[in-house]
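QA checklist item 7 of 12: single-chain prediction sanity check.
[x] sequence parsed
[x] length recorded as 264
[x] structure emitted
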Amino acid sequence: MGYSAKGVLESPFGQALSFLTPFGGAVTPRPNALNWFPLVGALLGLVLGGLWLATDHLWPEQVAAAIVVLADIALTGMLHLDGLADSADGLLGPLSKERRLEVMRDPRSGAFGVTAVGITLLLRWVSLSVLAPSIWLMVGIWSVSRTAMALVAIAAPYAREADGGLASVFIREPGGDSEGNGPPRFARAKRLLMVGVPGGIVGVVTVIVWNPVAGPVCLVAGVVCALALLSFSLRRIGGYTGDVLGAIGVIVETVSLLVAAARW
């Protein structure tokens, strides 16, 4: 039996692809799309890693690194960088919770957001320019970054339950009560394992192939910093938003690359 393009795009994998990238069209994802976040991340890492290897043979390291950074921006449609900018504007300023959420919904970027994105792009470019190109490293980091986003969406409270938001589609999970307030604890734990175990295994195994010591350390550093951001968001707005999810993905990638670029 064949599969139509429409059927693939409407599948959980297609929904995850459309949520995390500009590809796949305007498809509203369902909660089980989170299960496919690690695979989408691994595929993005595979493409970026292959591009990194190819461009490194044609241009100096600095130019190859810049091309990879630009390609990542194109492949994600700047969605996660936009989330980072909105999160910085909303979480860092001295505002009330309600005002923070309003600022994060505003498409315009302020000083905090512009600065955060600028520093992030610089760190990503510098890190890639001093590292030897590796598909293994990119697959591992990008898989774990999307795994972290999915785990936060499953486990953490959503900050916009009153007025909805981009990530609100993930809070009405299978097994929840009649009002869609979330699944029982067992179902939630099962979903965490279904997403976290495959994503974690892919991430850890691939970075170990890259470097048995530096690989796991760089992933741990990225995840710890992402948890710090989540903790900060919980204190400031009582949960996560779609912007925070994007920022978490960017933080995992950037910190992991930065640690990987150390003098091991």
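[x] summary fact logged: The chain has eleven helices and no strands.
[ ] second reviewer sign-off
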